[in-house]
Amino acid sequence: MYLFNPDNDLALANFSPNYTPPASAAAMAADMALLPVWYSKGDPVVAGGELHRLHLEAVQQLFPITSSLISYDEISKHTHQNIIPWGWNPALRKRLISRGMLEEQLPSLEELQRLRDYSGRQHAVRLLRELQAEEPAYCGESHYFTSLEEMQVYLSSFCGDKLLKMPLSGSGKGLIRILGAITDKQTDWSRRVIREQGGVVAEPVLHKVEDFAMEFYLDQGVSRFTGYSMFRSAKSGAYLGNELLSDRRIVEKLSAYVPVDLLHHLCETLLEKLAACFPFYTGYAGVDMMICQTGEGFSVQPCVEINMRM
Questions:
Q1: Domain of 178?
Q2: Total number of domains in the chain
Q3: Cα–Cα distances in Å, from 153 out to 164, 180, 206, 277?
Q4: N or C: which end of the chain has fewer CB within 10 A?
Q5: Does 131 reside within a domain?
């Protein structure tokens, strides 16, 4: 069974089994509940309601999609099947147990705590430094601060716009763009994030020309490359949408800026480093990247963030 829960990043950051998503996230989950039919390969998708049923029937008139729909209340009839959500968190775990799923079929709270740690942006900060140490052609700069004072010293050390990020957030959420000097309101935001999540990520804003990602599947220390993704985001960092392109076409577009061999080398390096960084994780991991314009031409920012979900 497949399930789309786009509020996962917020729920994982909150980490309460009683988490309630904001109305906007709940509406998005309801509107896009049918998304998994495009990749479920005929397996059931959790999405109840007459509107979704009619929509799926219309789609099946045009495309060879064989997935069926089940409601949350019908999950108890399918406990012989594994469930694959967009992402795991304690609130989803509790909800599935209340619908009849067995605890042994779901991640334990200890496994979810490890996933929460793996999902922190501080891992992307560390991995960026490791990649740049091996390949000077990569651009970008990112720092993880647990001290508000140290963060403020860093922000005042250079001119231009800066970006602050919550360690736990995703899809362009939890980002603050600083235009010049940090404001009192942004300082208060940083103080709260450090208190609630243990730290904050700060970095200069780059001259981005393309957003893309490399997608991987990790299985307890073994990794494989599953494809490219090319997407669009606003200046604020908010996700706007994906380009429906083949891997070959994405590589062709990226090769207008950087050598293809550099992309292949980056992919091979990430296969090794992701397996080493997340040895106990099983699931999809996407590494967001950017093509940026620099004083010397174009360069790859090879690790903007790491998404531990589909």
A1: 143-204
A2: 3
A3: 14, 14, 20, 29
A4: C
A5: no
Query: What 8-state DSSP symbol labels residue 205?
Result: P
How crowded is the C-beta side of 142, counted as CA atoms within 13 Å?
28
pLDDT at 238 over 80: no
To the nearest 10°, the Cα dihedral for 182, 185, 191, 192? -140
Biggest CA–CA distance in the chain, Å, is 60
Instruction: For residue 214, give the CATH number of its domain.
Output: 3.30.470.20
* pLDDT tens profile 154-201: 999 999 999 999 999 866 678 999 998 999 999 999 999 999 999 999
Note the pTM of the prediction, 2 decimals.
0.91
What CATH number is given to the structural domain containing 199? Answer: 3.30.1490
Assess if residue 124 is contained within a domain: no
Ramachandran angles phi, psi of 196, nearest 5°: -85, -30
List all residues 6 or more positions away from 249 whose beta carbon is below 8 Å from its beta carbon: none
Q: What number of other Cβ atoms are within 10 A of residue 19's Cβ?
A: 18
DSSP string of 43-57, one letter each residue: --EE--SHHHHHHHH
Name the packing angle between helices 148-155 and 184-197 (round to 10°): 140
Instruction: Decide if 222 contacts 276 (C-beta within 8 A).
Output: no
Determine the distance from the C-alpha atom of residue 127 to the mean position of all C-alpha atoms in its chain, rounded to a whole number: 15
